[in-house]
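Homework help board

Subject: predicted structure for assignment chain

Our instructor gave us this sequence and asked us to write out the predicted structure in token form, then describe one feature. I got the tokens but I'm not sure how to describe them. Can anyone check?
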Amino acid sequence: MERLVQVSTTGSSQLSHLYEYLLVAQPDEKVYQQIVEEKQCFFDLYKEKIAIKTKPHITVSNFLAKETMEETIIRWMQRIIGSQNNFSVSLNNYSGFPPHTVYLRVQDHQPFKKLAASLKAVDQYIRGNDCPPMKLITHPHLSVARRLSTTIYERAMMEFSQKLFHASFEVKQLILLRRQHQFDKCKQISVFGLGEGQKTLF
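My token output:
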């Protein structure tokens, strides 16, 4: 039941009892709706359902872990993330990862990279429990559509690279999601508030 489709260098039989977790930042309601409209526009043009099935978010980290590790991971993340300050995100026009993903560009990568660096203690805990290393964000972005064919990607980039999009929002919390595999629906597990006032939570 918990078998993961996504397999790393570890043998697939060893990953069959692991869940996939995603730590994400979501835009505020106003920007969220703007991006939903952009994703709907993409679907209207190219009929790619992935554009409207996925909710707007920026992934900070994703990793595989045993469910029995979840409580400890949440406790550590609450302490680590709570010691980080709120920060602003500016989205600025479109770009792509050839040959499969069209995304909105995040103008300033540093706050996300700082967050990712702070999670290395959680990464060590996960590795120490015979799980693959965490994937920590290296290029923050907000996907509009992914897993595209090369043909659709090239057509979409010709169109969307000419479009303008600007929006800003404040990141005040991160959300931890869990799914059984990369095609499963994500379930919210926990919410971690950023900011100085959160330091004494743990």
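Reply (TA_rk): Your tokens look well-formed. For the description, you could write something like this. DSSP finds seven helices and nine strands in the chain. That's the kind of observation they're looking for.
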